[in-house]
Amino acid sequence: MPEQQQWTIAATEQPPERFIQAVKQHTPLSSGMYAAQLLWQRGIKDNQQLTAFINYKAYQPASPFEFGQEMHLAITRLQQAYNAKEKIAIWGDFDADGITATSVLWDGLGQFFKQNAQLIYYIPNRLKESHGLNNQGIDNLANQSCKLIVTCDTGSTNIEEIIYAKQLGIDVIVTDHHTLPTERPPVAAIINPRYFSREHQLFNLSGVAVAYKLVEALYQTLPNIAKYPLEDLLDLVAVGLIADLVQLSGDCRYLAQLGIQRLQADFQQPPAARRRPGVGRLLELCQKSGDRPTDISFGLGPRINAVSRIQGDASFCVELLTSRDVKRCHELAEVTELANTRRKSLQKDVQGQVAQKLTQLDLSTTSVIVLEDAQWPAGVLGLVAGQIAQETGRPTILLSTEGLGEQGSRGAGEAGEAGEAGEQGSNSSPLPLRPSAPPLARGSARSVNSVDLYQLVKDQAHLLHRFGGHPFAAGLSLLVENIPLFTAAINQQLRQSLGSTTLTPTVQADLTVTVADLGKELFLELKVLEPCGMGNPVPKLLIQNCWFENAWHRNQQDWQGKKVQYIKTEFDIRDDSGRSAFPGLWWGHYKDELPIGRCDCIAELDYNTFKKRYEIRLIAVRPSVDSALNTRNGLNAPLSLTPLILDLRNQEHSKKATANATQDSPLILKDCPTSWDNLRLWLRRCLMTSRSASTLDNQQQLAIAWSKPNHQPPNQIWLTLVGIAKYLSRTNQPVTRVQLLEKIGISDQTLLVGIKALKSLGFTVKRQDNDLQFAWHLSDRAENLADEAVTKFLAAVREEQFQQQYFADVPLSTIIAIANSDNY
After folding, report:
1. pLDDT per residue as tens digits for the range 420-444
2. Which candidate, 94, 174, 180, 152, places its Cα nearest to that of 382?
3. Which of 111, 368, 370, 436 is most buried, with most CB under 10 Å away?
4. How far apart are the C-alpha atoms of 300 and 235, rounded to whole Å?
5. How confident is the model at residue 427, as a pLDDT?
6. What is the pTM of this model?
């Protein structure tokens, strides 16, 4: 479960007046003070840096021939292929950077080589193959008479595969940005910005940007052939750059700035006139307009990544991003949206299961979280590992043993799963797999707190089958029998390197503002920092001594209005700086999780394109230290609930505790609640008893001991209710409300909705003492009312099941925080 977050505020050094005035030139509607403070904090300290950072027209991008001899070799080999009319294959990758890089080469090289005849592309299947080249795919390309492979976002360390291709008469040009090989591979050319120094303006290029540089060099070398301008590729470059979480500095920032402009301009066209109707349709589905980096990081990027996570094969995404066929693109966009809906559902399920496993861990003695499960789909483990790492402040490794029976035949597809963060490739030699080989676990790792995760994993290479990655993210596979050894060794290694340092989840604020500061003026001032990303994060705003009003939450459904995917809370925030409130959102949380009374929060300021309003996106919140509610009911301090609530959920011994309950036992709550109000009744009972106790030993404890609900489909529950009602009508038997609730497994409130639906079918329900009596008289009129009434019942069941699913996994720390925030 999440630990108490540590909040920090960025070191504030007052920028000089001359710098503030320089910034103000770019923020004419405001003082520029906040933007100046942020830019100064982030190392932009002179006018030349400032101008190049904010105004892309003042920036001088690097020539593609900065790559030197390698770029010249690549262009020479492409010219040779052009003159000889050779067949070329683009070898891509399955994450958003790899898909957009493939698309850039497909569109860019497609100006010189006829698509589908001279030029084809190949993208490995995420669930069956690894990142990078593989011999089976190379054989496939050889059978299609390919003479040249151009990789993108992959290939630097695939030495054996490159040699194998050469033996088949296929040359390889590598364009990549991942780990460099120890020696230059036997390639026609290798274009990788890692050969530059860290200070070079091209060092941070992602795979799509490197691919763009190759196309740019070809455009310059053969200037009179291309039909479409090079700039038409920039929107794809922006999507890949921002989705891959690379540091947006140097040419990365310049290309992203230009690309976002192209993206927005194309979206503003009528759908039939768009250059990229697939991208436009994706933006419509996620209710974005393409003018913000967050439209990519929260909209386009996750959707492109979801395809390979769910389906394995993401090849059609290249068609989605490059085709001009509006109808076909809309079809592919909807397939992509469905994959993203499924990804959300899987991620939510796995996150709940991981949270439950975390309750069994003692985080005070755990430096690296390593968890495994046979049911976890490997495609979402990186996402969940990242969430857990942020919540706990510890590097997190999640492993799946799903589909072990296939591993002998499918090989090692584990080497670099964490694609969005820019890692790829294996730096260790894979062990040979035979059909009889022991089962492998494969998974993903994510890091926080500047812990070099890649080095941690690399130091345990002797226990691994394959691994690859970078300091913040990695993919790995290992024998299942090695997991305990690996877990112990990597924890010991990090403990030794940390010494006395304690790992805690940390959130840092950049600026302190008031509610009165929020709005269009501040938004436009901070917008000069965009595009934000690694090394230039979205500004985090600290708002102190504030409070929330008009909070409400709702369940967000998928794009077709069907399955519930997640929740969000909407609210108004106020403080003493003015009379007006300001709207905000808190994704993934219920309104009851907001503190009551004065509090401090950290948030991001955003513009909601769909609602056309400025709002904050809540990142973290806690009761204010000076809150008047810290003294309640005459007590000097709020009663600590930590020792009073026992978490026995989903545990075998909870059944034993329930069965052996005595007068001195804790209050035991066996039924999973469907709302915070439902849980509060038990918390109040516990607190009233505890406050009358003379010592801690005499205080009444509350044991939350419900099991994870095993829900029936709502339709089946409705059929069961109708069947029971018909039986009771036929036999003229009475039934108590409690008997009915136990039989059907729903709450009182939902049962009332169900009885209304039964009445619409012609049932009458009479109450006699504590019994209910059913009679059925089907009428023609009733049939017309049935659909609407039944729909309301099914919706009530879904809502109840969603709430129970939430309470099955909600962290104990959240329950305690809610209870402590209530004025009992």
Report:
1. 433 333 333 344 444 455 688 999 9
2. 94
3. 368
4. 12
5. 36
6. 0.72
